[in-house]
Design a protein that fits this description.
6% helix; single chain; mainly beta; globular
Length: 274
């Protein structure tokens, strides 16, 4: 905790059918050890094929994992986020491309998805409705809380190391379009959760980001022209103070999406007064 603020946040899990046998397989990440891929053999029996598959990973402090058919070949690939108190390329995110034979090949550099931020999670979706999957990488901040000047609005100041990033899929290679798309990428964004849904049901996906500490959550409304407008203060009646994560679903079956976000602020300050 003295060297890395999110020491206790834990790893990640992704579930999907990586070998196309009709059974869901499980990929587990480990902060300080190797990641693991378990193939579902049926009847709740699983086989660890990590080393054979080549998906253990070589980077530091694995966090969120996402299964996605990134190249549209009908086979799920695995994108792994990395974080921790590391320097240089030790924390660059990894992308394992399914080779259709039980093995994977790491090709994050080839696809343009080696993000070196303190990554929490990545989500793949077609934000511009052009038929391919784009990528939003949620990053946490490098800076300690006590180093900020709370009198200044740093939301629009881009942090090249931290900050969330949006990557547009341009024919199989991903281009960083964060700034031009209107996505905040500041070091005050302590991102811990990201969800995507068509909130206003206009046919284009929107983005909800949960931020820890003092920065508010973000609700990005898709403007249907390759850009987003952050409009959470107009779209919601109240906000959480320090969000740990989020999800979006139609909770009451009324045809409208609802937003669930966790809250670190306790209901009262009773314990502080003891």
């Amino acid at each position: 905790m003295f060297t890395f603020r999110n020491y206790y946040n834990g790893g990640g899990v992704a579930i999907g059918d990586v070998n196309n046998d009709g059974l869901n397989d499980v990929y587990l990440t480990s902060n300080m050890g190797g990641n693991q891929l378990y193939i579902n053999k049926g009847n709740w029996k699983f086989e660890n094929i990590t080393d054979k598959a080549g998906v253990r990973g070589t980077k530091y402090w694995s966090t969120g994992a996402t299964m996605v058919d990134i190249n549209g070949d009908g086979w799920l690939d695995i994108y792994v986020c990395h974080s921790g108190n590391a320097r240089g390329n030790e924390k660059g995110n990894e992308l394992f491309i399914n080779q259709h034979d039980g093995t994977f090949k790491e090709e994050a550099q080839k696809y343009g998805l080696v993000d070196n931020g303190l990554s929490t999670q990545a989500i793949f979706f077609d934000y511009d409705n052009d038929g391919d999957l784009d990528c939003f990488v949620l990053n946490n901040s490098f800076r300690p809380i006590e180093s900020f000047d709370f009198s200044k609005n740093l939301r629009a100041v881009v942090d090249e190391l931290g900050g969330a990033r949006l990557y547009r899929n341009d024919g199989g290679h991903f281009t960083n379009v964060t700034k031009e798309a209107g996505i905040y990428s500041s070091d005050i964004g302590f991102g811990l959760g990201v969800s995507v849904a068509d909130i206003n049901q206009d046919g284009y996906p929107d983005i909800y980001v949960s931020n820890d500490f003092f920065e508010r959550d973000y609700l990005y409304i898709n403007q249907k022209n390759g850009t987003f407008k952050e409009d959470i203060q107009n779209e919601t009646g109240h906000l959480s103070l320090a969000s740990m994560g989020s999800d979006i679903a139609d909770i009451n079956n009324d045809g409208q999406y609802d937003i669930f976000t966790t809250e670190m602020l306790p209901e009262g300050d009773r314990r502080l007064k003891k």
